[in-house]
Amino acid sequence: MPGEPEFRPVAAEALRWVARVTAIGLEFAVPALVGRLLDLGLGTGPWLVVSGALLGLAVGMLHVLRLPEEFAREAERDRGRRSGSERDSP
Question: Phi, psi at residue 41, to the nearest 5°?
């Protein structure tokens, strides 16, 4: 119903955190792994794995640095839901 606070089971919140942590971990690791595979295939030495590691570091850190903004937006959205439901109650 509109105006009611959204209820999320604890398991749903846990799965959301697992998805976030997994995504960040993959952002750090996958570029380096792709660089390693390309190095093996092209025989370019350690250059592509180093480039991939630096790229993964940059992308992963951007994601980590954006988390506080995301938390603030979620908190503001939750506060808005709560205040909206409080206005509807007598």
Answer: -75, -35
